[in-house]
Amino acid sequence: MGIKITGTGSYIPSIIEKNEDFYNHEFLNADGSSINSTNEVIVEKFEAITGIQERRYIKKELLNSDIAFYASQKAIEDAKIDKESIDYIICAHNYGDVKHNAEQSDTVPSIASRVKHLLKIKNPKCVGYDLLFGCPGWIEGVIQAKAFITAGLAKRCLVIGTETLSRVVDKHDRDSMIYSDGAGAVIVENTNEEGGIIAHNTATYALDEAHFIYFGETNNPEITDQRRYIKMYGRKIYEFAITHVPMALKACLDESGVSIHEVKKILIHQANEKMDEAIVKRLYKLYTMEMPKEVMPMTINTLGNSSVATVPTLYDMILKGQLKNHSINKGDIILFASVGAGMNINAIVYKC
Q1: E strands, 82-194, where?
Q2: What's the pTM?
Q3: How far apart are the C-alpha atoms of 285 and 281, rounded to whole Å?
Q4: How far is CA 300 from CA 45, 95, 144, 320, 343, in A?
Q5: pLDDT tens string 221-269
Q6: Which of 57, 197, 207, 311 has the greatest CB tally within 10 Å of its CB?
Q7: 3-class secondary structure for 26-60?
């Protein structure tokens, strides 16, 4: 018996925002002062650090709950299940439904309830709730689904990671170039097969790190509206991540009893290419090994950072043969990993 992912789906928005599209932005420092560089130089440095060349945004008429619904539909179809048999809908996001050019997010009813409504699930015993856990939210949702199933409270769960960060970015902040939109969903259920979730690990560091990612005012002092935007202390996050995430991954792997040599892929949150590479290199260094080639698939160069959606989207794309030079087969050992606002870290050792 194994608690496994039996269906996957994702929604990749159709609007492509390229790096050169930021050449006409007015980027400012946090104090509102001018940056002593041209936008071309700013964008060039940004790409060299993050690996991002383009990102995806949703159309004006769409909402976060819409794209969560689209990804969920695909996951249900892929799993070949009756939607009425779903016991829990766990929806990870961070900012709710934010309409285009709106000043306020909408979180009532929950995104999970909206997805259930859009799926037209009639069963009242299908319980939907939202999970606010920063970028690691989808992985934490899978962990919670596993806990429900292990406890006998559920047999089948829909776990969604969905975000529309394009609606909460400050266009005067250089960090706005990192963020994107997207949704990924999976069906997690009890099966007669071996494998599935072998081990998991979660931690929250909030004594000094709670506000590394936060909601703040625009960098432009001439704007006097009450909107708040996603902000971060990038250097602090980088140092935190490369210090703590490799250790969390090693602890999870050691608890599982699986050898690092058996790991085929590490599906890590697509936050920053250089940071992710540093994390995985440090993990292998803990085992006195070099990081293998092709062990860390990346989508950030074309999809950007869509927060909770990056890992399930990446997994779905690989399974569907949509990521060149990468594949995952039955019996493969993979690691899911993420770090983000909270500051939260989590990981799963998973046998396909």
Answers
A1: 88-92, 127-131, 156-164, 181-191
A2: 0.94
A3: 6
A4: 16, 21, 26, 18, 21
A5: 888 777 888 999 989 999 999 999 999 999 999 999 999 999 999 999 9
A6: 311
A7: CCECCCCCECCCCHHHHHHHHHHHHCCCEEEECCC
